[in-house]
């Protein structure tokens, strides 16, 4: 066998292996749904507590965000005073979701603490409906309405008793708790100010009528973060459909960086099924941590952009902020209410602070030779006034063809300041292995020009999402333009026209 044949075989094998991992991941996702919903196949253990109150309202203290020290009891105004409820401040109701353990998860105290960090005089009330939430999922899901109604009665009572403006009331519900918040909002006599749904639960709510799930009707403003809307068997742990005025899908709303469902695969050997549970929790609960991040890191607020689809967003085509097309992720979101629901996207880091910088790169690839179906590996380094970000990979959403402008999304974790210079590198890869590619490679090997693609890039147009800055970059030294090596681009001279006003569509290379 010749060298290239061996290489070809190797890549074929590698490709197959990668394919297998992907399908394993899908199987894994399927088994998660199995596990998630499995307990409901068991017999119902109905506790008949129709008379008892099913929700308790614990006003937490900034100094002890983890402890339930004082309960506000509807019908007992003295409990407001004894818990030092401040009727001129904002009031938050934190509503948990489904539970297996019957205990508060660790995020509750973190969220309480972050809310007090931002709003020092606020009343942060944790709604405890653990006894109903600790049930088979389907039963817990059915109880969300009754719990919501009880919270609605609490809201009515507190409004009547303290005269607080409901505009100051903000319900924050996670998973099933998001739908509880929805029911609370829709059953309260007057409309509450805001509901934030943190990855609202999908099973039993997806596709349901707006009255039977969280919906924009439930509050003056409803904002939603979707972090685990992985569809499988028609089910998704987080609800996929938009259910608020503004629905943000970080990282497409499916898989979150740093959670690594795939990594869970390796851990299963040691930790068994808990590894999967952990991975699921990580994705689902990421919504809570994004919200906490927005409370704590106000000055590093992440932006989300309105877009028709994840795919378009991943091509960098939606980084405009005109006509409130972009918004702030989390607590400081602008309360934009449109007739139709608004879906927005953002990318994040793997940990707090989650914010990244989004760039759209528009690159025109030209060549004398007609070629298409190229899948090169493209690398970009950005150099700004504050910092630099090197060797960032441009993800291809489609194959590169000659004389076509392609748009890419690029993100950096670092704030590089104003972009001054960039370097661009093109490498033919063997990853997109196909018969036609192979043929081309062989033929180019025969003709002896194996490395030269003949492909040229003269300009790169960039739009920065976070600053809304638009810059055109030109090849620094046109004579040495060959994509076989790294090419340096600098801001074009006298090229300050904005995109919308640019007159000559075709770029004349001789000018530079
Ligand atoms: C339960 O409710 C019924 C009627 O609604 C009432 O007669 C009864 O006293 C209640 N029981 C308790 C323990 O509150
Ligand atoms: C109640 O809240 C208001 C406004 O948020 C604040 O000015 C006031 O000091 C608070 N009262 C107490 C007792 O903390
Ligand atoms: C290049 O290829 C495309 C489609 O493959 C074709 O439509 C076009 O006419 C070709 N251009 C030249 C100059 O050969
Ligand atoms: C691409 O465009 C350039 C400039 O207009 C032209 O010279 C070249 O022939 C075109 N290449 C193909 C393959 O059509």
UniProtKB/TrEMBL annotation:
Active site: 175, 199, 284
Keywords, comma-separated and alphabetical: Calcium, Disulfide bond, Glycoprotein, Heparin-binding, Hydrolase, Lipid degradation, Lipid metabolism, Metal-binding, Secreted, Signal
Family annotation (PANTHER family): LIPASE, LIPOPROTEIN LIPASE-LIKE
Organismal lineage: Eukaryota, Metazoa, Chordata, Craniata, Vertebrata
EC code: 3.1.1.3
Record's keyword annotation contains Ribosomal protein: no
CDD domains, per the entry: Pancreat_lipase_like (cd00707), PLAT_LPL (cd01758)
Keyword Transport assigned: no
Catalytic reaction annotation: a triacylglycerol + H2O = a diacylglycerol + a fatty acid + H(+)
Protein family: Belongs to the AB hydrolase superfamily. Lipase family.
Protein name from the UniProt record: triacylglycerol lipase
Source species: Myripristis murdjan (pinecone soldierfish)
GO biological process entries: lipid catabolic process; very-low-density lipoprotein particle remodeling
Chain residues that bind Ca(2+): 213, 218
Boundaries of every PLAT domain copy: 357-493
Alphabetical list of SMART domains matching this protein: LH2
PROSITE patterns, alphabetized: PLAT
Signal peptide: 1-23
One Pfam family it belongs to: Lipase
Cell compartment(s), UniProt: Secreted
Entry GO MF terms: apolipoprotein binding; heparin binding; lipoprotein lipase activity; metal ion binding
A GO cellular component entry from the record: extracellular space
């Amino acid at each position: 066998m010749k060298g290239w044949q061996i290489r070809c075989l190797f890549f074929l094998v590698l490709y197959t292996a990668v394919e297998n991992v992907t399908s394993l991941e899908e199987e894994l996702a399927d088994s998660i749904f199995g596990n998630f919903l499995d307990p409901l196949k068991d017999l119902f253990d109905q506790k008949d507590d129709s008379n008892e109150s099913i929700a308790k309202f614990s006003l937490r203290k900034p100094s002890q965000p983890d402890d339930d020290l004082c309960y506000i009891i509807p019908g007992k105004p003295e409990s407001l005073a004894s818990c030092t409820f401040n009727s001129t401040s904002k009031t938050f109701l934190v509503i948990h979701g489904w539970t297996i353990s019957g205990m508060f998860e660790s995020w509750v105290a973190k969220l309480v603490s972050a809310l007090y960090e931002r709003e020092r005089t606020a009343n942060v009330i944790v709604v405890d409906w653990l006894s109903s939430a600790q049930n088979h999922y389907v039963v817990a899901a059915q109880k969300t309405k009754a719990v919501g109604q009880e919270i609605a009665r609490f809201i009515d009572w507190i409004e009547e008793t303290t005269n607080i403006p409901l505009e100051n009331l903000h319900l924050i519900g996670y998973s099933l708790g998001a739908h509880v918040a929805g029911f609370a909002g829709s059953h309260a006599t007057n409309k509450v100010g805001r509901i934030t749904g943190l990855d609202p639960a999908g099973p039993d709510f997806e596709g349901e009528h707006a009255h039977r799930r969280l919906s924009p009707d439930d509050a003056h403003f409803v904002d939603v973060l979707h972090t685990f809307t992985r569809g499988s068997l028609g089910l998704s742990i987080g609800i996929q459909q938009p259910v608020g005025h503004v629905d943000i899908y970080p990282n497409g709303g499916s898989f979150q960086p740093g959670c690594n469902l795939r990594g869970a695969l390796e851990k299963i050997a040691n930790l068994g099924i808990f590894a999967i549970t952990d991975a699921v929790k990580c994705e689902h609960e990421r919504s809570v941590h994004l919200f906490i991040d927005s409370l704590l890191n106000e000055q590093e607020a992440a932006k989300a952009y309105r877009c028709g689809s994840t795919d378009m967003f991943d091509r960098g085509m939606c980084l405009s902020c005109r006509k409130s097309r972009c918004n702030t992720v989390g607590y400081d979101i602008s309360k934009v209410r449109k007739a139709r629901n608004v879906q927005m996207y953002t990318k994040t880091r793997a940990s707090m602070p989650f914010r990244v910088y989004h760039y759209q790169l528009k690159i025109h690839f030209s060549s004398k030779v007609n070629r298409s179906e190229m899948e090169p590996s493209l690398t970009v380094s950005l150099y700004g006034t504050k910092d630099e970000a090197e060797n960032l990979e441009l993800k291809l959403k489609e194959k590169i063809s000659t004389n076509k402008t392609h748009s890419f999304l690029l993100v950096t974790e670092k704030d590089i300041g104003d972009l001054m210079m960039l370097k661009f590198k093109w490498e033919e890869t063997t990853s997109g292995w196909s018969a036609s590619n192979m043929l081309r490679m062989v033929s180019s090997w025969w003709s002896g020009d194996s490395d030269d693609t003949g492909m040229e890039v003269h300009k790169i147009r960039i739009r920065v999402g976070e600053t809304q800055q638009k810059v055109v970059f030109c090849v620094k030294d046109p004579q040495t333009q060959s994509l076989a090596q790294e090419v340096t681009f600098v801001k074009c001279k006298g090229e300050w026209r904005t995109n919308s006003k640019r007159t000559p569509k075709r770029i004349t290379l001789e000018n530079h």
